[in-house]
Amino acid sequence: MVGFKLNGKPVDVDAAGDSRLLWVLREHLKLTGTKYGCGTGLCGACMVHVDGKRAFSCQLALSEVAGKSVTTIEGLSTDRSHPVQKAWLAERVPQCGYCQSGQIMSAAALLAETPHPTRDKIVEHMSTNICRCGTYPRIVRAIERAAREG
Ligand code: FES
Ligand code: FES
After folding, report:
1. Digit-coded pLDDT (tens) for 26-64
2. Nearest CA to ligand 2 atom 4
3. Is the separation of the CB atoms in 106 and 24 below 8 Å?
4. What is the DSSP string of 11-47?
5. What is the pTM of this model?
6. pLDDT tens for residues 74-91?
7. Does the chain have fewer CB atoms within 10 Å around its N or its C terminus?
8. Nearest to 41 by CA among 133, 130, 139
9. How far is the CA of 58 from the centre of ligand 2 (A)?
10. Do residues 47 and 105 touch, judged by C-beta distance below 8 A?
């Protein structure tokens, strides 16, 4: 049994400590907003926050988050009111949508650390996240909007 805080609430998961956090979230806890893309730390589809910092959930063992605080896309806000979510809607960022929860989690982590990033900083930070639909220009615009409008 491994305990941690998930989207603000304590959870105990009955799974092996070396289970990947991504599958614990999706299979055990039924939070399917966090996506599986590559499974190798290369695409960012599985991005969550651990103690406020972004992390590839496909690369984290459950035991590594014991006692920590994990936030998934479902916990970013209760009503889609996070500035990044509002900006995403305003800029109509998603195309197929598959990569988008990971993109949003990455963007939210950036703005938490750097509320007014330069465009270069945005591009560099978001290079961890791949979008097969090529929504990159809209992603940059949405992050700039979120930084501007808060
Ligand atoms: S699924 Fe984790 S980085 Fe691709
Ligand atoms: S919106 Fe389709 S993969 Fe990014």
Report:
1. 999 999 999 999 999 999 999 999 999 999 999 999 999
2. 131
3. no
4. EEE-S-TTSBHHHIIIIIS--TTSPPS-SSSSS-TTE
5. 0.97
6. 999 989 999 999 999 999
7. N
8. 130
9. 18
10. yes
Phi, then psi, of 4 in degrees rounded to 5:
-155, 175
Q: How would DSSP label each residue in 93-134?
A: --SS-TTHHHHHHHHHHHHHH-SS--HHHHHHHGGG---TT-
Q: How far is the CA of 51 from the centre of ligand 1 (A)?
A: 19
State in Å: Cα 61 to ligand 2 middle. Answer: 26
Beta strands 2-6 and 69-71 are parallel
CA distance 35 to 38: 10
Tokens of 35: 């996506």
Q: Which residue has the tokens 């599958």?
A: 23
CA–CA distance from 102 to each of 1, 10, 30, 41, 54 (Å)? 27, 23, 17, 12, 10
Per the CB < 8 A criterion, the answer to whether 142 and 84 are in contact is yes
Distance between CA 9 and CA 131 in Å, rounded?
31
